[in-house]
Design brief:
By secondary structure, the protein is an alpha+beta fold. The protein has two domains: 217 residues, Cytochrome Bc1 Complex, Chain A, domain 1 (2-Layer Sandwich); 180 residues, Metalloenzyme, LuxS/M16 peptidase-like (Cytochrome Bc1 Complex, Chain A, domain 1, 2-Layer Sandwich), CATH 3.30.830.10. It contains 15 helices and twelve strands. Helix 3 runs parallel beside helix 8, helix 9 packs across helix 15 and helix 10 runs antiparallel to helix 11.
Amino acid sequence: MDIPKGFAFEETSGGVEAYRLEGNGLQTLLLRDATAPVATFMITYRVGSRHEPEGLTGACHFLEHLMFKGSARFNKQAGTSVFNVLQRVGARVNATTWLDRTNYYEMLPEEHLPLAVEIEADRMRGALLQDEDMERERTVILNELDRGENDPVRKLFHAVWAAAFTVHPYHHPVIGWRDDVERLTPDGLRHFYDTYYRPDNATVSIIGDFDKTEALGLVHRHFGQIASPEEALPAMHVCEPAQEEERRVVVRQAGWQGAVMVAWKSPRGLEADTDALDMLSAILSAGKNGRLYRRLTDTGLTTSAWGGISRFCDPGLAYVFARPAPDKTHEEVESAIHATIDEIKENGITEEELQRARNQRKAQAAFSRDGSFSAAAELNEAIAAGDWKLYTAMQDRINRVTGKHIQRVAREYFVEHTCTTGYYIPDGEASS
């Protein structure tokens, strides 16, 4: 393939090719999949709640709403609103905000790919961000926030993360704190947009059935004229202090079943120890063969129990979540969680468990390539963690994890006196 003028080829991995616009630094990833005549166009901005200062929490999520309200060329007044234009050609369109990134995407028939590229380029720097739209969306977001507050599990997760991180912005919920959402000004939001929505802070991904040369030509035509600001992106220097003591939080509100969440600090998403913790999470959660099911659920102590691990740009959390059976206490469940972990610390895991976890992750990797949208979603998270090749190299990384590695990370990270524990206790239930 001839590389169009203005692009530099960077590297290839697992069928993904990486290019960069020389004029403004926009990274472009191409992944061909001709199994269906559709394409997914996605733009990932490397900005999320992690980048929001005190007083401006919820800015990324607020911008996500406003980016659909109109840009210079695509707006309701002109009869060309983003949703209407894209849905007329059968596109699936949306956006998501998370801790390290924000993404916007369109999945549509491949002949309409030029339209998606044009729209995303126009709202990269041309979003209108009108005052009246902001006030309407503020009401929508506050209602969304209220719905989240009424969800005890979501509230428990927020409470645990807020207690585990005292300095780092992972302390803040992605939707923002209510006071900040209520007080966010148009000028503050515009400044945040101008700071982070720029070519050198974004990655474009095109996945599906398309011609590579034509696709790069589209990106150059629509994004190539956008200049990156002369000002450097703000540097992130916040480092969460080591947690030296156990922390506890309790959420009490209406509900039907309690919950226990035990969380430990985990390393950055790109580190090899995170691969081992990921495998440990799989071993804990592998259905009826999982350690948590056998020790907690099969014995009648819980109705469900599972583990999870974050793969973020900065150190995050590994955790276990469980729902006590009606006649069991939160303390009993918490004690059983630690006993399950202690058994792995002491005796390690079996080769059968390791192979089962590898097979599980292999199946998940296959599902992640089942269609252009699935691949885009996985690429999005790899970009956010700091390297898109996390998507293509995951199976090799998992295959390198050994039983001894899993036992070591269990001992090193799952330390009982440095965990953060949360209880959700339904109102009316006696404190356990």
